[in-house]
Every structure is written in C-alpha cells, then in structure tokens.
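Project outcomes to date are best conveyed with an example. Our students and postdoctoral researchers have been running inverse folding experiments weekly, and each run begins with a structure described purely in tokens. The record below, which covers 258 residues, was selected by the lab manager from last quarter's runs and is presented without edits.
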C-alpha cells in the first residue's frame, strides 16, 4: 500500500464538520470547496461509501446532534457507520450516540481537534463580548447556543451527562501548531489558549482534545487537521497533505474488521 492509498472499510463513513462549517460550498453547478478537502474523494477512491453531514452553523450540540441523527438514518438506513468528526462535530456525535439512542448504529467515532473538555477561548470570548454576540445573532435571526456549549463549564456538565456507550470505539486526534505557523485570524486564540492550557492547534489544546482509547498528536493547526492547506507552512516548504495521517486512522478502523 502506498502512502496515499486508503483502505476500504466494510461500513460507510460519515464526515461531520465543526462550528460554522459546511459539507460543501457550491456556486450554481460548480462546487467551490468541501469542508474536508481531498479527504472525501480520497476515501471514495478506495471504494468507501462516504457522506458528509451538513449541520446548522451555530445551533447547540443537542440540536446539531438531532440533525446528525436524521442525516445518518436517512443516508444509511439500517446500517452501522464510522464517524470522522472535526471540532464541535465530535461533541455533536458523542451526544447523538449517548443520548439519542444511536449506540447500535455507530461502530467508531474518531474526533479531530474536538474540545472535549471545553475551549478556554470560548470562555474568554464570552466573558468579553457576550453583551454584543447575543444581540448580533438575534438581529440576523441566528442561534448563538454553540458558543455557550463550547465553554469549559458547559463541557464539564456535558461530560457528566454524556457517557461513552459500550460497544462503540472512540479515538481522537489533536493538533500542535508552532506559533510561527499560526494563521493571522488565529493569532489571538492561539495566544490565549497557550497561556491557559499550553500546546494547541491554534484554538483547541492537546489537553482538551484527547478522548477514547487511542490518542494521536499531529503537527497541525486546527483547519489543517481536515486537510486545509496552511499557506505559511507551505511557503516554508513545511506543508504536506494529511493523507498519510488519515491512512493511519483508516487503517486502525480497518484493523477492527468493520
């Protein structure tokens, strides 16, 4: 098997995006981008059946979990699936499995950069700007619950109530990004999370991203975990796509025989 060759799994794979995410962006008939660029096509090239969920941008975990449940039941009725979930999508999947009676439908959940114990940047942002965030979202008729659900207090309660389901295998991946490679929009969250939690992927720390029986750390920023090119790293000759890492992740799932 070459470095970029995927293994074929017996069960379908569901990709789940994070906060403010999407399955794909289209302009008329043209597809502009996907949330997991290159990953979906790479998995399909090996014969895997893959579907990317499209959840609400800013609704809370409970609502997004209901949407994910409906998507899986409609797309792969009566089948068990593997889930690969980025960022908040990992919390949505955990809630769905534990609280929405989907434990018998999910074989594995692998999370990438998911703040399982909350995000201290969410704590900081809400403490400073909650007075502005809520009116802004209400003005545009949008829900702001997701931001509340990502705080450390909310995730502490989440972990008390949302327990792993026996029979489902849980794995996780975290990113660790050098400060010199952090993208400009993430300078502030990287600085704040570094001070409060240590090493992080520009917004989610290693300390909060670990969950399950196997945990990996990649040299990656938050978006590069799902194969978005880090242009600063690319300019310095340090960028490689994530297919080699995903080959290892999918190989682990294939080793389970499902």
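After processing, the design step wrote out the following sequence:
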């Amino acid at each position: 098997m070459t470095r970029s060759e995927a293994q074929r799994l017996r069960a379908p794979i569901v990709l789940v995006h994070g906060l403010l995410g999407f399955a794909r962006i289209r302009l008329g008939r043209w597809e502009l981008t996907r949330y997991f660029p290159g990953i979906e096509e790479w998995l399909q090239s090996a014969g895997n059946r893959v579907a990317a969920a499209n959840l609400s941008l800013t609704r809370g975990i409970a609502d997004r979990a209901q949407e994910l449940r409906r998507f899986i039941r409609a797309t792969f009725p009566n089948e068990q699936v593997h889930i690969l979930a980025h960022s908040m999508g990992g919390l949505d999947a955990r809630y769905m499995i534990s609280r929405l009676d989907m434990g018998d439908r999910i074989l594995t959940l692998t999370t990438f950069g998911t703040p399982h114990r909350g995000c201290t940047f969410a704590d900081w942002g809400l403490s400073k700007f909650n007075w502005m965030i809520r009116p802004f979202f209400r003005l545009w008729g949008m829900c702001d619950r997701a931001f509340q659900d990502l705080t450390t207090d909310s995730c502490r309660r989440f972990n008390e109530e949302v327990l792993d389901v026996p029979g489902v295998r849980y794995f996780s991946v975290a990113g660790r990004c050098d400060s010199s490679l952090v993208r400009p929009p993430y300078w502030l969250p990287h600085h704040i999370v570094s001070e409060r939690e240590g090493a992080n992927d520009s917004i989610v720390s290693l300390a909060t991203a670990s969950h399950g029986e196997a945990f990996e750390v990649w040299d990656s920023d938050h978006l590069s975990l799902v194969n978005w090119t880090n242009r600063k790293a690319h300019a310095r000759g340090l960028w490689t796509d994530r297919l080699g890492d995903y080959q290892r992740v999918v190989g682990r799932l294939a080793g389970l025989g499902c």
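The chain has a mean pLDDT of 91. Residues 118 and 155 are 5 Å apart (CA to CA). The training component of this project remains on track.
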